[in-house]
Specification:
Among the domains are: 93 residues, Severin; 94 residues. Helices cover 76% and strands 5% of the residues. The protein contains 17 helices and five strands. It has a five-stranded mixed sheet with strand order 2-1-3-4-5, with helices on both faces. A hairpin with a 4-residue loop joins β3 and β4. α4 packs antiparallel against α5. The longest helix is centred in the C-terminal third of the chain and has 48 residues.
């Protein structure tokens, strides 16, 4: 079963709608409202028109269905029924679930309470219309405000909006009325002052006075619609144009003389003409001519600037020699850039060409300098690697190369540093050679001792071996060869083994002889067999 949804809308002055809750529907059945009531169950739209509805609201009636469909596209309206108050069809009451008596009771109360207010509003409307016809806009606005107050009491929003719109228009007319009066009074004052200035030949100030008047009011009101203002403006324009034409002719003659003086490089005379022309341009409003003469000051300045530039260029040509020697290429380029900017402004193409040549020379010198620095940097890295790897001969060659490169770019500090490193490297090479010679001699002595040791160990000459080892220890303390030290550690081990063997043999020999003296042949034999066994193990 389809739910009987009722949607009620109050039409506004601007064609929009306010949705009214169903429980508040009786409150909007007033003689000044237009209601649109949509019954979803039967897809019907009722349009109810109050008896005293504002005409602005009535103008929307023909489009209510379209307006509602735009705002509520979900509505499906099959029937659209429009009727005036007290002309409601029977089905209207049935579908709306309200009785005729209930509705008419509301309407009767509305007619009793609202109609007197509407009559008062109608009376005020007629008075306001008369005020508008006689252009008494301030009075009309006050009457319209009274109407708004009454309309708000009866909640006639459409009437309130309409009256506010009318007040807005009348306010504009009232303000224009006051503006015209103000302009007419100001015109009278300005014209008196203008005439006084003309009498004293103060044409520019007179012109500025009228211009200020125009500027003050041209955006407020059309001055051509006020006869006195229009007449003043035309009179001033005619006078001003005549004065301007004369000044322009005088300036034209001066301009020819000025240019001729500049061509002949008569700077003093050109300056005098220029100053005279400036006095004339002070009476000109024509920006183009004034700016042109202001620009002529640049022509005088250009001649002075060219001389100053040539002087700067000559000084720079001397300075650049020292800057190159100091390898201050960025400073040189910065100065060239400044000079290029200056020469471009003073039209000396020959000097621009000279600066371009210098720029290329500087680029070439800087590129060569950077290549040398890069080569020095690479050599410095090689020197560090050589030092880490004890490649001192290579370091000698690299230091000599850096010193040579440093001389080519006049780097005295660099030369000083690597001369010191060169001497230190030479000293280190000498020290290394001395050290290696000492090591060689030590190895020779140790080899001799090694031969003696080999011979003595075979004959088990303990005293001699001990002496050899003590002598060898002295040499080993000064030696840095781990392999030889390890060999001598083995010699020491052999010595200790031989020494231990002899001690063991001595003990076993004594034990064997003691056993023999006691007549214990087996024990004696055992001792001597142990001696033989230990000797065999030592030899193996």
């Amino acid at each position: 079963m389809v739910e009987n949804i009722i949607k009620t809308f109050k039409l506004n002055y601007d064609g929009t709608f306010d949705e009214i809750a169903y429980e508040n529907i009786k409150e909007v059945f007033t003689i000044i409202n237009i209601l649109a009531i949509y019954i979803q169950k039967i897809k019907t739209m009722y349009i109810w028109i109050g008896r005293n509805v504002n005409q602005a609201l009535k103008n929307h009636v023909a489009r209510i269905r379209v307006l509602l469909k735009e705002e509520f596209p979900q509505f499906r309206i099959i029937r659209n029924i429009t009727f005036d108050m007290r002309s409601e069809p029977y089905e209207f009451f049935k579908n709306l679930n309200i009785t005729k008596d209930e509705l008419y009771e509301i309407i009767n109360y509305q007619e009793k309470t609202v109609l007197p207010v509407l009559e008062k509003i109608e009376e005020l409307k007629k008075k306001s219309e008369k005020s508008i016809e006689s252009e008494q806009y301030k009075s009309a606005i006050e009457l319209l405000k009274e109407i708004i107050g009454l309309a708000e009491k009866i909640q006639d929003d459409a009437l309130v909006t309409e009256q506010k719109r009318i007040i807005s228009k009348l306010t504009e007319k009232f303000e224009n009325q006051e503006i015209v009066s103000e302009i007419e009074q100001e015109t009278e004052r300005v014209e008196k002052e203008y005439n006084e200035l003309i009498k004293t030949k103060n044409i520019l100030k007179a012109h500025e006075l009228v211009e200020a008047f125009i500027k003050k009011y041209e955006t407020v009101y059309d001055l051509s619609l006020i006869p006195s203002a229009k007449e003043l403006i035309l009179k001033e324009k005619k006078k001003w144009n005549a004065e301007q034409e004369k000044t322009i002719n005088d300036l034209s003659i001066l301009e020819k003389d000025f240019k001729l003086s500049l061509e002949n490089l008569e700077i003093s005379e050109a300056t005098e003409i220029y100053e005279k022309a400036l006095i004339l341009t002070s009476n000109l409003i024509e920006e183009k001519i004034r700016n042109k003469w202001k620009g002529f000051s640049n022509n005088i300045q250009d001649a002075k600037d060219k001389f100053e530039f040539i002087k700067k260029f000559d000084n720079f040509s001397e300075e650049i020699i020292k800057l190159k020697e100091a390898h201050l290429y960025n400073e040189i380029k910065s100065k060239i850039e400044v000079l290029i900017k200056q020469v471009e402004q003073i039209d000396l193409p020959g000097y621009r060409g000279k600066l371009d040549v210098i720029n290329k020379e500087v680029d070439s010198a800087e590129e060569s300098y950077n290549r040398i620095l890069e080569e020095i940097g690479n050599l410095e890295e090689e020197i560090i690697d050589n030092q880490n790897n004890n490649q001192f001969e290579k370091n000698l060659r690299d230091c000599e190369k850096i010193i040579e490169l440093g001389k080519s770019i006049k780097k005295s500090e660099l030369i000083k540093i690597y001369t010191t490193i060169l001497e230190q490297t030479k000293e280190q090479i000498k020290n290394n050679k001395d050290f290696e010679e000492k090591q060689r001699l030590l190895k020779e002595e140790l080899t001799k001792l090694e031969n003696r040791f080999t011979s003595s160990i075979k004959t088990m000459e303990i005293k001699d071996i001990n002496e050899i080892l003590e002598k060898g220890e002295e040499f080993l303390n000064k030696l840095v060869d781990d392999e030889i030290k390890e060999k001598w550690d083995n010699f020491k081990a052999k010595f200790h083994s031989a020494k231990q063997l002899l001690e063991n043999i001595e003990i076993l020999s004594k034990n064997g002889m003691d056993a023999l003296n006691r007549g214990s042949c087996p024990d004696s034999l055992d001792s001597f067999e142990q001696i033989i066994h230990q000797l065999q193990e030592y030899k193996s």
